[in-house]
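Thread title: Can someone regenerate the structure for this chain?

I was given the following input by a collaborator and told the matching structure tokens would be attached. They weren't. Posting the sequence so someone can regenerate them.
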Amino acid sequence: MTDKILKISDKFWNIRGEFKIFGLLNIGTHASLVKRSNGKFVLLDAYTMQDDIKQQIDSLTNNGVNIEAIINLHPFHTVHIEKIHRDYPNALLYGTQRHIDKFPNLTWQTELTNSNEFAVLFSDDFEFSVPRGVDFISKNEHLHFSSVLAYHKESKTIHVDDTLMYLKLPGLLSVLKSPEVSFHMTLSKTLERRKGAADDFRLWAAELAEQWSGAEVLCAAHSSTLFIKNQSPSIAAMIMTALERVELTLKHHEKKFG
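Best answer:
Regenerated them for you:
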């Protein structure tokens, strides 16, 4: 797979890139370029772009001058942060506490991307959601369930890392199994070890489906991009189905922690 840009709308571009485990298995990754209502651009997540992709991004953004912010949404997606900062050094850099701790020499903004203070800054164009009932930054660095989900209101697009996945099988296999939205497989290991965590997660997922019920596009990091327009089931319905599929996991957690 080579890098590519998917034009979601006149104001939203999803950059599909490579991420290889042990240098062999490509599970993919992504970032998104979004034009705000003020005419400036933001990058959702960081990715080192191939030359032709970067040329396209630069042509849209006046050689990067109009990129006002780079918004890092996943605490454990850090591979490309330093490079994207060098490419666009004048863009304001936002991240979680883990990003700041990992790269203390970069010029981070004080508002963490998982905070209400940050969400207010970009509320003209976006809504953000942080999963409840799960560890946001797990002590086990192999558990990458949680991230900040972003919803671009104008293009009706959800940009998400890890937390939600859209699995689309290649070629003829897609005929045998329909694509589906699912929660990341590490949910059982990242639920907070306390009473009520499972119910908090249920309520969060249901609220997400309701609040973003108008979503028509889901851009997921390590899987694919889902386009739905006037089709059934909706993305909201697929999120609720994904929630139903993890109910046994949630009930097991409740049995263990009360």
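The first strand starts at residue 4 and ends at 9.
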